[in-house]
Amino acid sequence: MTTYHFLQLYWWAIVSLLGALLVFLLFVQGGQTLLYGTAKNEKQRNILLTIFGHKWEITYTTLITFGGAAFASFPLFYSTSFGGAYWLWIFILLAFVVQAFSYEFRNKEHNLLGKRTYDALLMINGWLGTILLGVAVGSFFTGGNFNIDKMNITIQSSNVISYWTNDWKGLELILNPINILLGVTVLFAARTLGLLYTINQCRRMGDDEAMQLAERAHVQLKVSALAFVVLFVIFVYDLFMMTGLKVNVASAVNVAGAQPGASGAITPEVHAYLHNMLQVPWILILLILGVVMVLAGLAGALFCNKGRCALCKKCGINPDSQCPFNKHAFYVVGFGVVLAVWAILLSAGFNDTAYYPSLYDPQHSLTLYNSSSSRYTLEVMAYVSLAVPFVVWYIAYVWNKMNVKKGDKTDY
C-alpha cells in the first residue's frame, strides 16, 4: 500500500466517522418529532424544546463539518453530489435552516408566524430532514446519474468535470426503494434516540409534567425501537445482497508515478459489500459490536428498571437504585449506532470499492483513487486531524455543561 493510498483510506475513515456521528446527533431531530403526539400540552412541548434546544447547534455544526471534510478530502465527490444532485441537498439544507430560526424566534413576543408555525417547521426538520439525509447516504451504494470527464478542465468553454445527466438533479434518488428504506431507518434511529434522551433528561428534571412526558416516551419507545431494529436488519440484508462496483487494481496501467488502481477498470461484483465485511474483518467487528450495543441499550431501556428484571437480580443490583443499563441506555445505544453506521460507510469505500457508482457509465464511478485531493493536501490535513481528540473533549465538556439539570426551567 502506498502512502498516498493510506491517506485516502484514512480520510475516508474520517469522513465516514463524521457521517456516523451525524446520524447519532440526529437524536435532536428525532426529539422534535415528539412535539405533537408525545407532548400533550404547551408545558410539555416547552420541556422538549428546552431539552433539545440545548443541543441542536452540535448537530448542525457536524453536518457542516461533514460537508467540509468531504470537500477537502474528496472534492470530486463534493462537486458531483452537492453540485449535481443539488435539489436533494437544497431540500436538506432548507430543512435544517428552518430549525435554526424556529428555535430563535418561537417564543419572541409579537412574532408574526406564531408558535404553531415554528413547531410545524421543527417537525418538518425532524421528519423530512432525517429521511432526506438517509436518502443522500443511500446513494453511496445505489449511485447517481452523473458523468465524469476530467479532460473538460482543459476546455475553456466547458470546464465542468462532472455533471448530472438528467433534469431531476437528485430528486430521482428519492424514488429508489433502497434509499427510502435507509431514510426511514435513519428517521426511526433518530426518533428512538430522541425518546431515550427525553426519558433521560425528564427524569433529571423531576417535576410532574416532565415525569409524565418520560412515561409517555417510554411507551412509545417500544414501537419506535422495534421499527428501527427491523428496518435496520432489512437494510443490512439488502446491502449484503447488493451488487457493487470494484476497481480492478491488477488492470491498472503501470505508469511511472501512478498509484495502483488509479486507472483500473471498474467491474461489478455480486455481494460486494458482504465481501468487504468478510475480507476486512475489523469492519465486520465494528458492525457486530455496534449492533450488540444497540440491542443491549434498548433492552436496558425497555426491560431493566430498578432491579425488576432477571439481569438486575443476577447482578445483585440494589432494588432501590436505578439499573445502569436503564440509566445510560441513550449513550449505549448512541455509541452502538455510531459504530454500526461507521462500519457501513467504511464498507462503501474500502477494499477497492466505488463509493459513488455512476448509473450513466460504471467506468465514471467515484473511487478513493480517482476522486481524492492531492497527496500534499491529504498529508497537511492529516496533521491537522491530530487536533480532533481535543475538539472531541471540548464537545464532551460543553455537552455536559448544557445538560438539563433537576429544577431547570423551560426556556423555549
Alpha plus pi helix count: 17
Please give the largest β-sheet. 2 strands, antiparallel
Structural class comes to mainly alpha
Mean pLDDT: 86
H and E string: HHHHHHHEEHHEEHHHHHHHH
Q: What's the arrangement of strands in the largest beta sheet? A: 1-2
Write down the overall geometry.
Answer: globular
Give the N-to-C terminal Cα separation: 53 Å
Radius of gyration equals: 23 Å
Number of strands: 4
Secondary-structure topology with pairs:
Blueprint: H1 3-25, H2 27-32, H3 42-53, H4 56-73, H5 75-84, H6 86-105, H7 115-142, E1 146-148, E2 162-164, H8 177-205, H9 208-241, E3 243-247, E4 266-270, H10 272-279, H11 281-303, H12 310-315, H13 324-327, H14 329-349, H15 368-371, H16 375-384, H17 388-402
Note down, in words, how this protein is organized.
The chain has 412 residues and is mainly alpha-helical. 66% of the residues lie in helices and 4% in strands. The chain has 17 helices and four strands. It has helices spanning 3-25, 27-32, 42-53, 56-73, 75-84, 86-105, 115-142, 177-205, 208-241, 272-279, 281-303, 310-315, 324-327, 329-349, 368-371, 375-384, 388-402, and strands at 146-148, 162-164, 243-247, 266-270. A two-stranded antiparallel sheet has the order 1-2. A two-stranded antiparallel sheet has the order 3-4. Helix 10 packs across helix 11. It starts with a helix and ends in a 10-residue tail after the last helix. The model is unreliable at 251-258 (pLDDT under 50).
